[in-house]
Please model this.
Amino acid sequence: MEHYLDNSATTKVCPEAAEAALRAMTEIYGNPSSTHTLGRNAAKLLDKARRQVASAMGCQPTELVFTSCGSESDNWALIKGAEYMSRKGKHIISSYVEHDAIRKSLDELEARGFEVTRLMPDAAGAITVESVLGALREDTILVSLMLVNNETGAVTDIAAISKALKKAGSIALIHTDAVQAFMKIPFSAKTLGADMISVSGHKIHAPKGIGALYIRNGVKLKPFIVGGGQESGRRAGTEAMPQIAAFGEACETALAHINENCARMAELKAYIISTLTSAIPELTYVDTPAPHILSISLPGFRSEVLMNFLEAKEVYVSKSSACKKGGRSHVLEAIGLSSKTIDGAVRIGLSRFTTQEDADALCAGLIEAHNTLAHR
Model:
């Protein structure tokens, strides 16, 4: 029996999303920009999906632009956000524990003459308000910090950072990569106070290939992809209607049960920690508040060996971010873990579909791996 615990890499598409995608491919298949009946029907479906996603994000539909993924949303927010603010300054604040979509966008901006201050995280991977204020300058034009860290589950208090920047009179735009937070911890665009928020569909049981960028009304970002006038002229290219329709349904379904889903994932996470630390005294973990991400380590073991042992039992976890393709975790290095701990780390990702049986299979597999491999 399969036990999938790599939900931070991607999630299984939920039935509601799959049905919506199929309907968009086989029934409401017109181009939303076409003026005939099939096009108008597709445009209505597009509007519905935008309202569904906007409702889940707590924003106005006019503030939401569909993208191909979280990485595109991140790239657009940083590069065009910096360009938009460039007349007022060239300084950007971010951190050492961001996703590569942010890190490489920052590298690109530095090559264009912007100055980037990368903040060190706390021991869990979060960025403090004090560190942001300590780096703030009069010419700071953009602050980009991840809401929930994709490897540790650390939560950065974006709302508090936003309030602190406003109190300090800063002109900086605030962007947050909320890909791992969306529908996993309750938040809204209004309560966060961010100017731009990146989210992705395949982390919340929608298909891959769809994301969105919240752009607060009044922020005039130039398009990242130019061509036609789709998305009110903000992103060119025919809308990916099957993915968009699926994203909308996934959001509506998740939003309806977000509190109970978060509570159940938190219970499973606590159960896994308790079970493993009782059975394996030397096991360590990063203590974080996000209910769905758990980074553990068996120092002295190799991540790849543990993952292979578990895979043989149809238990699936990961080493770090899937985007790194097995590379060493810059996040775990930044929070100060030893090389031995990093080399034995695995990431466990829960979802609303994760069961007690999945948690038991994971624990049993890791305990067996520890007891078996320790004697080799």
In short: The two ends are 27 Å apart (CA to CA). The chain has a mean pLDDT of 96. The longest strand covers residues 91-95.
